[in-house]
Design brief:
By secondary structure, the protein is an all-alpha fold. Helix content is 67%, strand content 1%. It folds into three domains: 41-116, no CATH class; 125-280, Hypothetical protein af1432 (Orthogonal Bundle), CATH 1.10.3210.10; 299-353, Winged helix-like DNA-binding domain superfamily/Winged helix DNA-binding domain (Arc Repressor Mutant, subunit A). The chain contains 21 helices and two strands. Helix 4 (43-54) packs antiparallel against helix 5, helix 9 (155-164) crosses helix 15 (235-250) and helix 13 packs antiparallel against helix 14.
Length: 357
């Protein structure tokens, strides 16, 4: 049963006139939630996860990467790790879920998932699932970079929210079929959400948050999903809003420059960093792996190392951080010592490999 605050949002969803008269709208909504709660996974993604579970040498990071390649798998793993529809999610990220379920539990879960294969059975359903999966993974990758630039905490939780940010679109597709595609139409991500509210009385972000709460995931994930189109979004929601825009921009969809600037400003990202983000995505190569070990560097040491990674000399770093050159040099020497690097190039490579930059 949905909680009161969930029902207040869910009951805003309009159904066809006949459904409202006959009282079947609630049944259709529940059926749509159930359908999306048991999404099929991409066959190749499931195969890779099972293979990783069966290799004794697979690390928790490799297992998490396999899970995060498919939103349907991530949903199943997060729900299982949080005991199904538990009242308050104990596990915020996929890596925590991997530690909780271990390889045997993950393999058993993966074997039980239904799958789709876009190459073998192309069709409307497979196209919809694959579009959702690919966009979710792309926004997760972009949000990971945004989270690094904005120095956000709990980036494993951010990754889950990014993967699931558009899950409400699947619910609305189940409810309205082809009419939903017409109602949502084209345009920038924020424009589509506004059109949904105008045509349907609710948008996919709110619907998705209702479902995420129904699954018992952490409140922060639901909030990020619910507010990722809000112009006053902060934190993870703001990161997903910007990442969503970046992905649509990379795909050639219309995204106003003003909207990108506003989304960047909400995370204190200046024009230089925002321009670099747009330039590098999606051509930045393999995504950075989030580290499972704590970073031993202080905030100032990371700031100095980040300056080196951006190709700056000591004097430039010192000016930007309002420090003396000798202090910057001391910070960087501490960095080399703490992470076992012999020079600046190795320090940058090690920090990036471990997900600290």
């Amino acid at each position: 049963m949905l909680a009161k605050h969930q029902m207040s949002e869910a009951t805003k969803i309009k159904t066809a006139d006949g459904d409202r008269r006959s009282g079947t709208g609630g049944h259709r909504l529940a059926a749509a939630f159930d359908a999306v709660s048991s999404l099929p996974a991409l066959a190749e993604a499931r195969r890779r996860l099972i293979g990783a579970c069966e290799r004794s040498a697979s690390s928790s990071g490799e297992l998490a990467d396999a899970i995060e390649s498919d939103a349907a798998i991530a949903i199943a793993v997060m729900r299982t790790a949080n005991n199904g529809n538990g009242p308050s999610g104990r596990v915020g990220g996929v890596r925590e879920a991997v530690e909780s379920l271990q390889s045997d539990g993950l393999r058993a879960l993966a074997v039980g998932l239904s799958t789709y294969d876009f190459l073998e059975r192309p069709g409307p359903s497979a196209e919809r699932y694959e579009r959702f999966r690919r966009h979710g993974v792309a926004v997760r990758n972009a949000s990971e970079r945004v989270g690094e630039l904005a120095r956000l905490a709990d980036r494993d939780e951010l990754a889950v929210a990014a993967l699931l940010h558009d899950v409400g679109r699947l619910v609305l597709s189940e409810l309205y079929g082809a009419h939903y595609a017409v109602a949502a139409g084209r345009g920038s991500p924020d424009e589509r959400a506004r059109r949904e509210r105008r045509e349907l009385g609710i948008d996919h972000a709110v619907v998705g948050a209702v479902l995420v709460r129904r699954w018992g995931l952490r409140a922060g994930i639901a909030t990020a999903v619910e507010r990722h189109h809000a112009t006053d979004a902060t934190g993870h929601a703001a990161a997903i809003r910007l990442a969503d825009m970046v992905v649509h921009h990379a795909d050639g969809d219309p995204v106003p420059a003003e909207g990108l600037r506003d989304a960047g400003a909400a995370l204190d990202l200046d024009a230089e960093r925002l321009s670099a983000l747009l330039f590098e995505f999606p051509h930045a190569g393999e995504r950075r792996r989030r580290s499972t070990e704590p970073c031993p560097l202080s905030t100032r040491e990371l700031d100095a190392l980040r300056g080196l990674a951006e190709g700056k000399v000591y004097k430039q770093i010192a000016q930007e951080l309002s420090l003396s050159v000798s202090t910057v040099r001391t910070h960087l020497h501490n960095v080399y010592r703490k992470i076992g690097a012999v020079d600046r190039a190795q320090a940058v490579l090690l920090a990036r490999d471990r997900g600290w930059l």
